[in-house]
Structure prediction request, 279 residues.
Amino acid sequence: MRIDAYPPQEPLPEVARIFHETLMARAEGIEGHEYSYGADPSQSLMVFPCEKPGSPVLMFMHGGAWTNGYKEQMAFLAPPLNAAGFTLVSASYRLAPKYVFPANFDDVADAFAKTWGLAETHGYRRDAIFTGGHSAGGHLAALLATRTDWQGQRGLPANAVKGCLPISATFDFTPGSGSSVRPRFLGPEGVFSEVKASPLFQIGERVPPFLVAYGSDDFAHLKVQGEKFAMVARAKGASVDTLEIDGADHVNALLMATQTDKPWMAAATRFMSAVAKRI
Prediction:
């Protein structure tokens, strides 16, 4: 989809603008199959299938503080994932401030259901779909993996998400969690959305394996939250690995994902392969 076909997004600060341009440059020339899962242009996804049939799938969501971002930005992840035997699905979702929680969560849940439904079309494994994302997208991926109130509504089994790979994600929006401002996607003050939007407080008895990643120079509260999420999830019986990406700040934690001298891609494919073999 052409970027100008999307609804207008919030003006970007300079650092975010450069990040966007870098991602789009890296994605140039990488073609996928586009599908809609709703009427809004942001309710869409792209499938970058692995040539080998029967591949596991990573459904990955872009970041952008829940106010910006496009599925096209994540196309640069497709070549190394495809080469390692994985299909990539990149999903967009409706953004704040026009749309507030749970609109974006409902969207990624619908995107997951669409991904599930496209398995026969593209020959990938319906029983081996993982979620992941960077920053805001990592938060939404984690929420899909921890909440259990959306699968049945969409005709999916409770264990449809087989694993989760958030990068630099927020896991807690409650007061004292370390965020300097209340994210606008949560809606106005006084609306009880902080707990329902926080993966930390959605951990139940059935949580799939996680690979929680963040940069060594990432926002301090995200590193703390990632470790706390891992500790709580492990205490409840979940399998959670953590990965600190050396030399990466919040932006570079994603930009380094495909670099062979950085650990994320190797760790991610190893993690998904191990889980898929056990299914």
